[in-house]
């Protein structure tokens, strides 16, 4: 029931949303990537990149952006991942592909590296960015991240959606194929997680029906052994969509990462 409830919220959110992205950057292999920049609460601070889950678009972060003045960053960059929103309408089923599409945005400002925040599928994309481009990533916040390579609890649901793929919206069908491929993608990244050296904050709900709390936390603790501090924030009775339901805790986690990365 928790799983169905989480996906019901996502379905309503995606069905009623329109991406606010209004700027484009050319990527090496994915054409145009759409994004939007919003001012944060610290004009002299660094930049934060927000990566949505599957399916979704940049509008998924609207509640966080409404409180951008509380965040210790000069700029918040919300991205439409490849295949969603206003970005290039094509499939990208690999984490390396999604990470490479973000690379043009990783330009240091005032000598500060970016902090990457990823919700659900955006979590492993954030990890892949830290693996592939460590010199450009200053910290990571994983929000209900779908990072556990051995998480198979929702495969039955995804296979069911795949069986009726001709009846579901394009974004959902594309997202489902992303998620079906995610197990192999996470398995391929698993031995590389020792290379993550930046600070990592994990914010996860104890009632997450999509990415179970205990196994996800254990998986990350066992593999992010070289991260510069791994901080876990467990949200009691929190579900999968913490970026919608627990904005206070998310802002605290973001600001803690900023402080750990660049100091008070």
Describe this structure in words.
The protein is built from nine helices and eight strands. The protein is of the alpha/beta class. It has an eight-stranded mixed sheet with strand order 1-2-4-3-5-6-7-8, with helices on both faces. Helix 5 (155-163) runs antiparallel to helix 6 (170-189). The radius of gyration is 17 Å and the shape is globular. Residues 1-12 and 156-167 have low confidence and may be disordered.
Q: Rg from C-alpha positions?
A: 17 Å
Structural class: alpha/beta
The neighbouring-strand order within the major sheet is 1-2-4-3-5-6-7-8
Strand percentage = 15-25%
What distance separates the N and C termini?
42 Å
Helix tally equals: 9
Report helical residue fraction: 25-40%
Order of helices and strands: HEEEHEHEHEHHEHEHH
Tell me how many strands there are.
Answer: 8
The major sheet is characterized as:
8 strands, mixed
Low-confidence runs = 1-12, 156-167
Q: Roughly what is the average pLDDT, rounded to an integer?
A: 87
Shape: globular
List keywords for this structure.
single chain, 264 residues, globular, disordered N terminus, alpha/beta, eight-stranded mixed beta sheet
Task: Give the SSE map.
Blueprint: H1 2-16, E1 23-26, E2 32-39, E3 47-51, H2 62-65, E4 75-79, H3 95-102, E5 114-119, H4 122-132, E6 137-143, H5 155-163, H6 170-189, E7 200-205, H7 213-223, E8 230-235, H8 242-245, H9 247-262
Parallel strand pairs: 3-4, 3-5, 5-6, 6-7, 7-8
Antiparallel strand pairs: 1-2, 2-4
Helix pairs in contact: 3-4, 5-6
